[in-house]
Design a protein that fits this description.
By secondary structure, the chain is α/β, with parallel strands linked by helices. The protein has a single domain, classed as Rossmann fold (3-Layer(aba) Sandwich), CATH 3.40.50. The protein is built from 12 helices and 7 strands. Strands 3-4-2-5-1-6-7 form a 7-stranded mixed β-sheet, sandwiched between helices. The structure holds adenosine-5'-triphosphate and magnesium ion (MG). This is Chromosome partitioning protein.
Length: 341
């Protein structure tokens, strides 16, 4: 595992590829019809326009950043955040691998990756010690984005792992042996704190916790944080919570801003200034096997994930993020950067 570049490169043109099956013809769009008629060209063009800074790249990390997207609470936006942040980082010019560690396989579905039972998957890596390189597939829509899919086999892995040697560090070993250069690895965890999530916490240095802006948002987080402390103490001294992302934020409600305030006073600097708005486009995209970045690149949901990715990339190299100059395109929705609301 290594990172091949620490220079800021311009966003590259994604490779045109066949992905017609996932572009729904009758899909309604927030953005006007694009000029380029290949879907990927369309996506890239609109994303670049939306960012308003074609040719400007983001700094790449010196070493691969392995980020564990975890929260044992279900439905808070772990998978949505994993796939959309990963696509955003790739559109910003990075090389990104998504590891789907949830037997539901939602991240694989959202990235349009085949994950029926016979497909080589992360189960084979964890339980059969198969090299990660043999299961990784390129994501057809986005250049620089890859996925290690999960199949239904993974449902049995929690139990099968128990009797295996080094059961907590099997993913870590697989990642360490992976030779391809990568800037980011994002691991999508299941909504539990079992051996699969422990494998993720041992494999990564950074934990990214998506928090849904709803009542009880912080409930149960103490248990996750204790697990992070335990894994840091015994298995992975580098592990820390680096990033908190507020998801499904509805700037019109008092509840959302109250939850945001509470999370900020609790976690402080770890909370990204950018929050993700509740967006129909975000929730529609997976049923087309797409991220919101290719499904509707100019939508508020796509822009907020692009901006969150920018913030993560800048923080990673120690650059202070300036929320006043957030690239929120035509939407300029202040609720996405509720630090300045
Ligand atoms: N910003 C958003 N706006 C609207 N809907 C969203 C948003 N983020 C996530 N959703 C929807 O909320 C649901 C839960 O999201 P997601 O699957 O990402 O959560 P999760 O934490 O991965 O769930 P699980 O714990 O089951 O793995 C999905 O239907 C998703 O489409
Ligand atoms: Mg999920």
């Amino acid at each position: 595992m290594r990172s091949d570049a620490n220079i800021a490169g311009p966003m590259t043109d994604p490779v045109p590829g066949p992905r017609t099956e996932s572009m729904g013809g009758g899909v309604s769009r927030e953005t006007p019809p694009p000029m380029d008629d290949t879907p990927i060209g369309r996506a890239a063009q609109l994303a670049v326009e939306a960012l308003g800074r074609a040719g400007e790249g983001l700094p790449r990390p010196e070493q691969t950043r392995v980020m564990v997207v975890a929260n044992q609470k279900g439905g808070v936006g772990k998978t949505t955040t994993t796939v959309n942040l990963a696509a955003s980082l790739a559109l910003h010019g990075g090389r990104v691998l998504v590891v789907d560690l949830d037997p539901q396989g939602n991240a694989s579905t959202a990235l349009g990756i085949d994950h029926h039972a016979e497909v080589p998957s992360i189960y084979d890596v964890l339980v059969e010690s198969r090299p990660l390189s043999e299961v990784v597939q390129p994501v057809p829509d986005v250049e620089g984005l890859f996925c290690a899919p999960a199949t239904i086999d993974l449902a049995g892995a929690e139990i099968e792992l128990v009797s295996l040697v080094a059961r907590e560090s099997r993913l870590q070993r697989a990642i360490q042996s992976y030779e391809q250069p990568l800037d980011y690895i994002l691991i999508d965890c299941p909504p539990s704190l079992g051996l699969l999530t422990v494998n993720a916490l041992v494999a990564g240095a950074e934990v990214l916790i998506p928090i849904q802006c709803e009542y009880y948002a912080l409930e149960g987080l103490g248990q996750l944080l204790r697990n992070v402390d335990l894994v840091r103490g015994h298995l992975n001294p580098d592990l820390h919570v680096s990033t908190i992302l507020l998801t499904m934020y509805d700037g019109r409600t008092r509840l959302a801003s109250q939850v945001a305030d509470e999370v900020r006073s609790h976690f402080g600097e770890e909370v990204l200034r950018t929050s993700i708005p509740r967006s129909v486009r975000i929730s529609e995209a997976p049923s087309y096997g797409q991220t919101v970045l290719t499904y509707d690149p100019g939508s508020s949901g796509a822009l907020s994930y692009l901006e969150a990715a920018r913030e993560i990339a800048l923080r990673g190299v120690g650059v202070t993020y300036d929320a006043q100059h957030a690239h929120l395109g035509a939407h300029n929705d202040q609720s996405m950067v509720e630090g300045i609301q």
